[in-house]
Every structure is written in C-alpha cells, then in structure tokens.
Amino acid sequence: MSQTGIVIEAARAKINLALHVTGQRADGYHLLDSLVTFADFGDELALRPSAQDRFEITGRFAETLSADADNLVTRARDGLRALAEELGYETCPVDITLTKSLPLSSGIGGGSADAAATLRGLMRLWKLDVPRDRLAELCLSLGADVPMCLASSPLIARGIGEDIEPLATLPSFFILLVNPLKPVSTPQIFRLLTSKTNGPVHPFDPAQADWLDYLGCLRNDLQEPAQRLLADIGECLQQLEESGAEVCRMSGSGATCFGLYRDEMTLERAALTLEQAKPQWYVRAGRTLEGNAP
Ligand SMILES: C[C@](O)(CO)[C@H](O)COP(=O)(O)OP(=O)(O)OC[C@H]1O[C@@H](n2ccc(N)nc2=O)[C@H](O)[C@@H]1O
Ligand SMILES: Nc1ncnc2c1ncn2[C@@H]1O[C@H](COP(=O)(O)OP(=O)(O)OP(=O)(O)O)[C@@H](O)[C@H]1O
User: Which of the listed residues 186, 220, 250, 258 should we mutate to test ligand 1's pocket, taking the one with most ligand atoms within 8 A of CB?
Assistant: First the structure.
C-alpha cells in the first residue's frame, strides 16, 4: 500500500494458450484441460479507504459497462465483505476505480480478472487472512475463470477451472491480441460444441519440441463453434497467420485471437500492419508472463 493508502492491482488479460474440452458435468458445466498464461497488460483497479462505498469506471471500454450491483467488481467486493465479517474482521467502506482497457465478453477474462484483482486488493486493504477453501469457494461463485485470474500467473486449469496447477517452466512469449469488437456469449459457444469428450493437453517434453512447436500441436476446442457463429474470427486468424505468427489461436470462448511470434521485430511489424489494416478492431501487442515471475 502507498502512503496515501491507495492499493493498485493489475487485472491482466487471461490467455488460453490451449483449451481442450474433455467432458461435461451433470450440472451442464464443461470439464476443461487448459494451458493458461497472462499478458503484461489489462485492466487496472485502484482501491482506497473512503467515507462510503464508491465505484466508477474509466478507460477505453468504460462506456460498454455499467458500475452497478451486477458488475463483477461490486459482486467481488460485497462477497468478500460478507465473508470477512463472518470471519470477525471489520471492513471499511472503499472507493474503487476500474480502468477498463480490455474489451467485454471477448474470451480474455476481463471481468474475471477485475473480480480477482478486487479480491486481492481488498485483502491487502482490509488486512484479511482468508482460509484458502473459503476464498476458492468465493472465486468460483463469481465465475469459472476467477480462480485462475486470482493466481494470474502461468498454470494448467482442469475441472471447470477450479483445479489449478502452476506452470513454472512456461516461458514468456511475444503476443498479439486481435478482436473484431463483436461480443461473444460464453454459454452460447459451449452449447454449439459438437464433441464434448476430447483428448487432454499432452505434457510438454523439452527433448522433443520447443514451446512454440508444442503449442502449435494443441487446440482450442471452442474455436470451431465460435467461428461458425462469427465469421470475423476466421478473418482474425488469417490476418495473424499472414503477419508471421508461429501459433494462431482463439482464447477462451472468443472472439479474441492471439498470435505468438519468435521475435519482437516481427511482432511489432505485425501490430503496425494490423492496426492500419483494421482500425475498427482491438489490436494489442505485448509479452506474456513467465512461469517463475513474482
Ligand atoms: C471458456 C473459459 O473462458 C476458459 O477459460 C471459461 O471456462 C469461462 O469462464 P467464465 O467466463 O468465468 O464462465 P462463467 O461466467 O462461470 O460461465 C458462463 C457460462 O459458460 C458455461 N460454462 C462455463 C465454464 C465451463 N467450464 N463450462 C461451461 O459450460 C456455462 O453455461 C456458464 O453458465
Ligand atoms: N468488470 C467487468 N468487466 C467485464 N465484464 C463484466 C464486468 N462485470 C460484469 N461483467 C459482465 O460479464 C460478462 C463477461 O465479461 P468478460 O469480459 O469477463 O467476458 P470474457 O472475456 O468472455 O470472459 P471469459 O474469458 O471468462 O469467457 C459480460 O456480459 C459483462 O457484462
């Protein structure tokens, strides 16, 4: 916490480098095997003690979202406050500002990252020590991606996203995200799946391949149904391929697609070309986090 009492938390974009759908639970939720990393950019949360609770949204995509009780930030705040009070803590009112830089309903977990960053920030601000199982339960009640966004470092997620194994060996990649700025509904994409029992992600063997070659052999099983619903996804993938990306894939339930590049110069050229060719798209270049990042 700074001297002025402000807590700043990054809400990094989540990237499903691979997403295999391996089954379905009795309640309809799908079982996944997903290799996940995080970008070095995303939304940002600023939290500070205040006379009363306040919440406002600024940033490029602020207009697309309302700061009401349904927002994942307010739901995370209220859920954590109820849990903290149950555990005997006192919680002061908070003033929260969300800088919304990630597009909505785009497969990069913006809302989940915001919820997770709110939880991390408030645990610092309110000096909470919450039992792991109670925190995990709260995260999952906010969304299947919230547990992984709480970790916000490379991992393998199984179950519906709650079974998390850190992936310390994952390197950092040069990444370009492109999104046609057409929102995609996650439940709708899951409903359009034709096969729900696909093979899991096979482990990385450094003797057999490098990371980009390995990732190239994996899949996102939601990509085909998403492409059927929104043809722009095919165009995003084609543009990435033509720009020199080694691996091109959709993240989550789409529509954001990513390209991974061998070097920074090819990435920068690709970003420039796509920004000029598609000014109406979201185009963002950066790095992904390393597995052993702090
Ligand atoms: C596709 C992923 O982004 C991959 O990381 C996530 O699994 C989706 O996570 P999320 O957006 O946090 O999803 P939630 O808000 O919990 O769920 C939205 C809806 O997606 C469907 N859903 C979600 C996750 C999952 N493993 N199986 C599902 O079938 C359910 O219909 C659910 O009602
Ligand atoms: N702070 C928030 N940011 C983004 N979306 C929010 C937020 N709060 C609530 N929502 C709602 O959550 C829904 C999904 O938003 P989000 O941007 O996280 O989707 P996504 O990127 O597709 O996520 P995922 O990768 O988890 O499928 C939207 O319908 C949006 O209205």
Answer: 186
Q: 246 falls in which pLDDT band (50, 70, 90)?
A: very high
Q: Does residue 115 sit in the same domain as residue 238?
A: no
Find the domain containing 195 and state its range: 174-287
- Per the structure, the count of domains in the chain is 2
Q: Is 113 within any annotated ligand binding site?
A: yes
- For the whole model, what pTM was predicted? 0.96
Cα 253-180-144 angle, rounded to 5 deg? 20
147 within ligand 2 shell (Cβ under 6 A): no
- What is the pLDDT confidence band of residue 207, given thresholds at 50, 70 and 90? confident
- pLDDT for the residue 136: 97
Active-site choice (33, 43, 145, 232): 145
Same domain, 181 and 128: no
72 pocket-lining for ligand 2 (C-beta < 6 Å)? yes
pLDDT over threshold 60, residue 294? no
108 inside domain: yes
Does residue 73 fall inside a structural domain? yes
Report ipTM for this prediction.
0.96
